[in-house]
Write a structure and sequence with these properties.
With 493 residues, the chain is of the alpha+beta class. It is 33% helix and 23% strand. The strands form four sheets. Strands 1, 2, 3, 11, 12, 13, 14 and 20 form an eight-stranded mixed beta sheet that branches. A seven-stranded mixed beta sheet has the order 9-8-16-17-18-15-19. A three-stranded antiparallel beta sheet has the order 6-10-7. Helix 1 runs parallel beside helix 8 and helix 1 runs parallel beside helix 15.
Length: 493
């Protein structure tokens, strides 16, 4: 061990075939596949628990899913199927089909439940908006074949404006926009359609016990096949040789004031963290990496969210609530062009989603109780300049406002709350290191989506996170991790 500027550098003799930076779902899938195929794998995670946004926490006997509301797909041609079959997921994890359709949408004018199959959705939409039948049928054909349609490089708003005259049907169809973008007129129709069409092909499912059940399963699978996962270790540098190829990583502890930096060798590195982090911080400056750095500078970051996690002393169907996912639009939102402005208004008027996990056998709460989450689009700028006291005060104010609004949706619910916790964009950034706490990586604008899938400029560095994929949802992240592993296995052969 040698001392240099009060920093201790410890070089390990141990080397790995592959190092995965970050233990989000994409990284765990990649590591599991590589470990199964006999590769020596190390997963390095800066947080004290695995999963990224696909994780849970437990308070007062309530288990709360941090960011996972549902998983699309599980139909015959779903790309997840081959992954889950190869990694024995189906015999170890239970997926629950959500029986209440895609979501319920409600505002001052419309209260409508959108089914999660094409035929049922067309039937119900025609009944609610009979004058829009032609546009309804064209919409579902378009999202199914978006890559070859004239809307593939346009925005969601442009596509819907061309199909419909009624503003409320446009708001209904973009009710779950939170998962894909913050503005229908800057969000790619291609990214939106690809993700949404998977829901209408296979419906929505939940992982019994929460998303941590799946990430824990992958972690155990990795260890059982000889892989290693190390927590509370933040990668500070990706090491390269004179040719610019990756040779390993350097990391340090995040759990204490230990100044030891550890270097570990590897033949390949998979990045399951933010691309801006690797471009601006982790990679050395040279001609190859400068191309990535310049590209990242030009790209717009995606939005964050504010979540209010709730534990109730009763299942909410006892209070007359019957929906798993409810989209609540404020009365001030009359058309698609109002949506972005609403994301930047006060929390007492901001559109929000409510997920009621008691509508299924989620396994998230003690018997006779239930959990839920309120989620709304938010930005770190609303929180970053507050001192600690004002930050706590604002969180409490927002909590109160959203509970009052939830009580209007489900009368009497505020009298049954046993547990509340609020997560702001600052919380999202702290736990994932994603710039601005983005939940979708780079914004999925039409121009940026054309750049996907984002590829590394270095031959033995791979990307497998939401920052490198063109559309939202767990499906694309799982597929990105799988593809990284398969690419490495092919190279090794």
């Amino acid at each position: 061990m040698q001392k240099d500027n009060n920093i201790f550098l410890h070089i390990l003799v141990m080397a790995y075939d592959v190092i995965v930076i970050g233990s989000g779902l994409g990284g765990l899938v990649a590591a599991a596949k590589l470990a199964k195929e006999g590769k020596k794998v190390l997963v390095v995670e800066q947080h004290s628990s695995i999963g990224g946004y696909a994780t849970c926490f437990t308070k007062k006997n309530f288990t709360v899913d941090v960011g996972f509301h549902s998983m699309d797909g599980l139909y015959v041609q779903d790309p997840k199927i081959k992954v889950f079959e190869d990694l024995d997921v189906y015999i170890n994890i239970e997926f629950i089909k959500i029986p209440t359709g895609y979501f319920r949408f409600t505002n001052e004018r419309v209260d409508f439940t959108l089914p999660d199959t094409v035929d049922e959705a067309i039937t119900e939409l025609k009944q609610q908006f009979p004058e829009e039948e032609k546009g309804i049928r064209t919409f579902f054909k378009t999202i199914e074949n978006i890559s070859t349609s004239k809307w593939s490089n346009k925005s969601v708003g442009e596509m819907l404006d061309s199909l419909f005259r009624n503003d409320d049907i446009k708001l209904v169809l973009t009710g779950a926009m939170l998962y894909y973008g913050d503005d229908p007129y800057t969000t790619s129709a291609k990214a939106f359609s690809t993700a949404v069409s998977r829901i209408f092909k296979g419906g929505n499912h939940y992982i019994k016990g929460g998303s941590l059940k799946l990430t824990d399963y992958f972690a155990n699978f990795i260890k059982e096949h000889g892989g290693t996962i190390t927590l509370n270790k933040k990668v500070t540098k990706i090491l390269t040789d004179s040719l610019g190829l990756i040779t390993g990583v350097e990391y340090e502890s995040t759990s204490n004031d230990d100044t030891v930096k550890t270097q570990v060798d590897a033949n390949f590195v998979i990045l399951n963290a933010s691309v801006p982090q690797v471009a601006n911080v982790l990679l050395p400056e040279n001609e190859t990496t400068s191309l990535l750095r310049e590209a990242v500078k030009q790209m717009k970051l995606g939005h964050s969210v504010l979540n209010v996690y709730l534990g109730f002393d009763t299942p909410l169907d006892k209070l007359g609530h019957k929906d798993y996912l409810t989209v609540v639009n404020d009365q001030s939102v009359f058309k698609l062009s109002d949506v972005f402005g609403n994301n930047n208004t006060g929390y007492s008027k901001r559109n929000f989603l409510f997920v009621d996990y008691s509508q299924i056998d989620s396994g998230m709460a003690p018997y006779g109780k239930s959990t839920g989450v309120i989620s709304t689009i938010d930005y770190i700028e609303n929180w970053s300049k507050l001192d600690e006291d004002n930050y706590k005060s604002k969180k409490k104010q927002v909590e109160t406002e959203f509970i009052e609004r939830l009580d209007k949706l489900i009368p009497g619910v505020k009298d049954h709350i046993e547990f509340v916790s609020v997560a702001t964009p600052k919380t999202m950034k702290r736990y994932t290191l994603n710039p601005k706490g983005s939940i979708i990586g780079f914004a999925r604008t039409p121009i940026q989506v054309e750049m996907y899938p984002l590829k590394s400029p270095i031959k033995n560095l791979y990307f497998s996170s939401t920052w490198s994929i063109p559309d939202g949802g767990f499906t694309s992240i799982i597929e990105a991790g799988w593809n990284s592993a398969v690419s490495i296995l092919r190279k090794r052969r």
